[in-house]
Amino acid sequence: MGSNVREKTLMDEKEIIWIQDPNNFPWVREAETDFCQRQGISMSRKSDLEAGETILIGYADLEEDAPPAFTEAGHEYFFRRVFTICKGDFEAYGDKDCPTEAVEPSTIYPKVKGSSPKRKAQIAVRLPIILFKKLNAHIQTTGISQTQVVISALAKYLDTPEEISLPERVLNLEKRVAALEAKD
User: Fold this and answer.
1) What is the Cα–Cα distance from 9 to 110, expressed in whole angstroms?
2) Residue 183: how many CA atoms within 13 Å on its side-chain side?
3) What average pLDDT does the chain have?
4) Out of the domains of life, which is the source (predicted)?
5) How far is it, in rounded angstroms, from Cα 58 to Cα 53?
6) How far is it, in rounded angstroms, from Cα 107 to Cα 128?
7) How many helices (H) and strands (E) does the chain have?
8) Dihedrals phi, psi of 157, to nearest 5 degrees
9) Distance (Å, rounded) from C-alpha 86 to C-alpha 155?
10) pTM value surpassing 0.85
11) Which residues, 6+ apart, have CB-to-CB distance to 46 below 8 Å?
């Protein structure tokens, strides 16, 4: 799984240029294509890339001294990354799926391939025994998985409420309703 962008395409990248705010997209399609210049994008090339149902979200600019990938009929061409979506992508794939070339926009940097939205980071943590016992008691009481509890707790602590799982949000709402009912 992942994009078909070659490592040598990344080597001379200078910066990523976003045409649209990448934070508005859970994922974008990452690909490489040839340009006749190292930086910027002409309106005609943008139109070519946006043919059909494709929407250009961003592209990579290269260093000024980046060598051409190939020369054809006396013209130099440079492979650069482009980031796109297709109209209807998110409806077609839903919340849980994406195409193989999809990457999370927040993981896109010059010289670095984007990471798949399906890829999840993993951490290992040593807990004090009392906290571990409280975690297990919470899991037994709520039926929420250990992973969901940890993700929800981190999301709440780091003020990222969209990462709090639905069962955890329902449990929090139930607690708040019970507290309000107790006041009456």
Assistant:
1) 10
2) 5
3) 88
4) Bacteria
5) 16
6) 33
7) 6, 6
8) -65, -40
9) 30
10) no
11) 56
Give, in degrees to the nearest 5, the angle at Cα 88 between 103 and 155: 45
pLDDT at 146 > cutoff 50: yes
Contacts of 171 (CB under 8 A, 6+ apart): 142, 144
Average confidence (pLDDT) over 154-158 = 81
Are the CB atoms for 58 and 19 separated by under 8 Å? Answer: yes
Q: Residue 14: pLDDT above 90?
A: yes
CA distance 10 to 43: 23
The residue ranges of every structural domain in the chain are 7-107, 129-183
CA–CA gap between residue 137 and residue 119 (Å, rounded): 29
What confidence score (pLDDT) does residue 162 get?
60
Both tokens assigned to 33: 């294509």
- Which pLDDT does position 1 carry in this prediction? 41
Q: Residue 48 corresponds to which amino acid?
A: D
Joined together, the tokens standing for residue 38 give 């190292």
pLDDT at 160 over 70: yes
Take residue 87 and report the two structure tokens written for it.
């109209």
Tokens 């329902």 sit on residue: 170
CA dihedral 58, 63, 65, 69 (to 10 degrees): -40
